Amino acid sequence: MKVEDKNKNINKEQKKTKGNQELKTFSWKRVLAVTIRILNSFKRDPRTLGLLIVVPSIIMIVFGLAFSGEVKDVPIIIDNQDEGFDIGPISLDIGTNITDFLINDTRVDVYLGSYEDNIQQVEEGKYIAAILIPSNFSEGIYRLSMGYNTVIEIIVYIDATEPNVRASVLNSLYDALAEIRGSQGIQINQIIAHGGSEYTGLEVGMSASMAYVLSFLLLLISLVTLIREKISGTESRLYSTPLTATERMLGYVFGLTIIGLLMIFAIMIFGIFVFGIEVRGSILLLFISFILFGMVHIFLSLFLSNYAENEFQAIQFTPIIVIPGMAVSGMLIPIYSLPDWLEPLSFVFPLTYGVNIIKGIMLKGWGFKELWLDFVILTGMIIIFFVLALITVKDRMSD
Amino acid sequence: MDNYIIEVKDLVKVYKTGNIKAVDNLNLQIKRGEIYALIGANGSGKTTTINVLTGALYPTSGKVRILDYAIPKDRKKTANFIGIAPQEYSLYNELTLEENVRFFSLLYGQSKSEFRERLDHLLTILSLHEKRKTVVKNLSGGMKRRVSIACALIHDPVLLFFDEATVGIDPVQRKFFWDYFRSLVKEQEKTIILTSHVMDEAERADRIGLMRKGKLIEEGIPSELKEKYHTSTIEEIFIKLSDVGESE
Ligand SMILES: Nc1ncnc2c1ncn2[C@@H]1O[C@H](COP(=O)(O)OP(=O)(O)OP(=O)(O)O)[C@@H](O)[C@H]1O
Ligand SMILES: [Mg+2]
Question: Would you call A333 helix, strand, or coil by DSSP?
Answer without folding.
Answer: coil
